[in-house]
Specification:
homodimer, 3 helices, alpha+beta, 8-stranded antiparallel β-sheet, Chemotaxis protein chec
């Protein structure tokens, strides 16, 4: 995956956190994710397909998930409930949609956002699509965005 | 989600298990999934986008995941390792690809398959896309396919 494809995702998440949640994200150094590395407690997952196929995982800890939901709904949930998973799914959709708009040449469509919960869950990418992982610091604790994207070539069938 | 859209996924998974794994699946009654219902220990997740947006989740227990991997690699893994997650991701891709081919009018593309592991993980769908859940029995134990699909209308932007 080319590093230049990652920038639209970085600008999108920073902008969404700033404008929708009033929360400043501080970007840390991106790295290629090792296999079997657990995500945070709540992860939004959305698929991308078109001239590139990929997945975006937006993973955040309990405190960040509760605070982001509070910023969206003006009410703080007491636990990781369906309000939280809906909010994280919607944020994942908006972050991926913002990046997609900047990667027009891939003509990508978005799948539905799903949200994975459960302490210690691990989200694996295919071997040939090791994702770039971008950690961010925030007043709500760590937030991570993982993006794995493979360019499709006309000679290779998509499925 | 219309029930007729589910049949291509059912015929696809039964055919993939039969021809690739030599394992007969016995279909049980489909139901609409309640929120917060845990999946089995290993779940393949793949996104669909196009004139319909959706997600396919292929979830199976430890024994079924190990046996399916053994059938594909001719060697039995001793634990849920990257061979298992690669095999489950590939199966998810083939199952979704087979169904996609039968739903040509949606002109759907597939995202990359991701595989979620971790006991007690839960995969939530968006509120407006409650998935149809199709359980199957097999000699390897239970296997579940969940499909949530929303038709896109031209007036509604996709993201």
């Amino acid at each position: 995956m080319k590093a230049e494809y990652i920038n639209p995702f970085i600008t999108s998440i920073i902008s969404v956190f700033d404008t929708m949640l009033g929360c400043e994200l501080k970007r840390e150094a991106p790295f290629v994710k090792d296999s079997h590395q657990p995500a945070h407690e709540v992860s939004g997952v959305i698929g991308l397909s078109g001239k590139a196929r990929g997945t975006v995982v937006f993973s955040l800890g309990r405190e960040a998930a509760l605070s982001a939901t509070e910023a969206m709904l003006d009410e703080r949930p007491t636990e990781i409930n369906s309000d939280v998973t809906d909010a994280v799914g919607e944020l994942t959709n908006i972050i991926a949609g913002g990046a997609k708009a900047q990667l027009e040449h891939f003509a990508m469509g978005l799948s539905l956002p799903n949200v994975v919960t459960g302490k210690g869950h691990v989200i694996e990418f295919p071997k040939d699509a090791a994702p770039i992982c971008i950690p961010f610091g925030s007043e709500w604790g760590p937030v991570v965005l993982e993006v794995g994207l493979i360019e499709q070539h006309a000679a290779v069938p998509q499925s």
